[in-house]
Write a structure and sequence with these properties.
- There is one protein chain.
- The protein is mostly helical and about 270 residues long.
- Helix content is about 60%, strand content about 5%.
- The chain has 9 helices and 6 strands.
- Helix 6 packs antiparallel against helix 7.
- The longest helix is centred in the C-terminal third of the chain and has 30 residues, at about 220-250.
- It is elongated, with a radius of gyration of 29 Å.
Length: about 270
C-alpha cells in the first residue's frame, strides 16, 4: 500500500508536467505527430549509425564554418613582411654561411640566394617586378590605399581594408575575404553545407510522405521550411558548381567578372 501511495504523487506530477508541455508545444499534443516522433526514436534505436552520421555532418559543417570565417585569406602585408624578414635574416647570415635562407608563411614560400638581393630595392619589390610581364604599367603594381606593391591576382578589399593575395571575393556570410589562404576551406564548407541541406531535405520529405493522409495545413510549417530549404539547396548547388569550375580553370571570381578591367588579363 505504501508503494502505491508513493507512486500516485509522482504520476500526478508527471501528468501535470505533460499537460503544461502540451500547452507550450501544441504540436506534441497531436497523436499523429507523437507517433512520428516515436518512429524517429525507434529508427534511431534500430539504426544508430544513421543519426550519428547526420549529427557528425552537422558538427563538421558548423566547425568548418568557424574555421573558414576565422582563417586568413592571405594578406599582401603579411607576405611582404615575411619576405623582408627573410631578406634581413639572409643579409645577417650571408657573411658566415653560403646556404640560402628560406621562410614560409602558410602557402607563401620565400627562398633567398645572392642573385635575388640588391642594395636599393627590397626583396618584395623585386619579387613583384619579376611576376609581371614585360611592358606592364608600374602604376598598376602599387595599391593606392595600402601603398604596397601588389603581385598579380592581388586586390585591395575595401571591407577588410587590406590587400588580399589571389583575391576571390568578400563573403558577407563568413565575414571575411576569400583568397589564396582560405579558398580551399571555403570550397569544402560549401560542399559540406550542400550535403547537409540535401540530407535535411530528404528527412523533411520522408516525414511529409509518412503523414500524407492528413490535411496539408496541419503541416504548413514543415512545408514552408522544406520550400525554404530547397531554395537554399539550389543556391548552394550553383555556388558549388561555380567554384568547382573556378578551381578547375585556376581562376577567381574577381578575375572572371572583371577580366576586361584587369591590366594583366586584358589582352589574354
Amino acid at each position: 500500500m505504501m508503494i502505491v501511495s508513493m507512486r500516485r504523487p509522482f504520476r500526478d506530477t508527471w501528468d501535470r508536467m505533460s499537460e503544461r508541455c502540451f500547452r507550450c508545444l501544441p504540436c506534441l499534443s497531436d497523436p499523429a505527430r507523437r507517433s512520428s516522433l516515436g518512429d524517429l526514436i525507434e529508427k534511431t534505436k534500430k539504426e544508430p549509425w544513421y543519426t550519428a552520421l547526420y549529427l557528425l555532418l552537422f558538427v563538421v559543417t558548423l566547425a568548418q564554418y568557424f574555421f573558414t570565417s576565422g582563417s586568413s585569406p592571405g594578406y599582401v602585408l603579411d607576405a611582404m613582411r615575411t619576405a623582408n624578414e627573410a631578406d634581413a635574416i639572409y643579409r645577417r647570415t650571408s657573411t658566415t654561411s653560403k646556404q640560402p635562407a628560406s621562410s614560409k608563411n602558410g602557402s607563401f614560400v620565400i627562398t633567398l640566394d645572392g642573385s635575388q638581393l640588391g642594395s636599393n630595392a627590397t626583396l618584395w619589390t623585386k619579387m613583384v617586378m619579376d611576376m609581371y610581364p614585360p611592358g606592364s604599367s608600374v602604376r598598376s603594381w602599387t595599391c593606392t590605399c595600402c601603398n604596397v606593391w601588389q603581385p598579380p591576382r592581388a586586390k585591395h578589399c575595401h571591407d577588410c581594408d587590406k590587400c588580399v593575395l589571389q583575391f576571390d571575393h568578400h563573403c558577407v556570410w563568413l565575414g571575411t575575404c576569400i583568397g589564396q589562404g582560405n579558398h580551399c576551406r571555403f570550397w569544402w564548407y560549401i560542399c559540406e553545407e550542400t550535403a547537409l541541406c540535401l540530407w535535411t531535405g530528404i528527412l523533411y520529405i520522408s516525414y511529409l510522405k509518412a503523414n500524407i493522409s492528413r490535411a496539408w495545413w496541419m503541416d504548413a510549417i514543415m512545408i514552408i521550411l522544406l520550400v525554404t530549404l530547397l531554395i537554399s539547396l539550389i543556391f548552394l548547388l550553383l555556388l558549388l558548381l561555380f567554384h568547382s569550375y573556378l578551381v578547375a580553370t585556376n581562376q577567381t571570381t574577381y578575375e572572371l567578372v572583371r577580366r576586361r578591367r584587369i591590366p594583366y588579363l586584358r589582352d589574354s
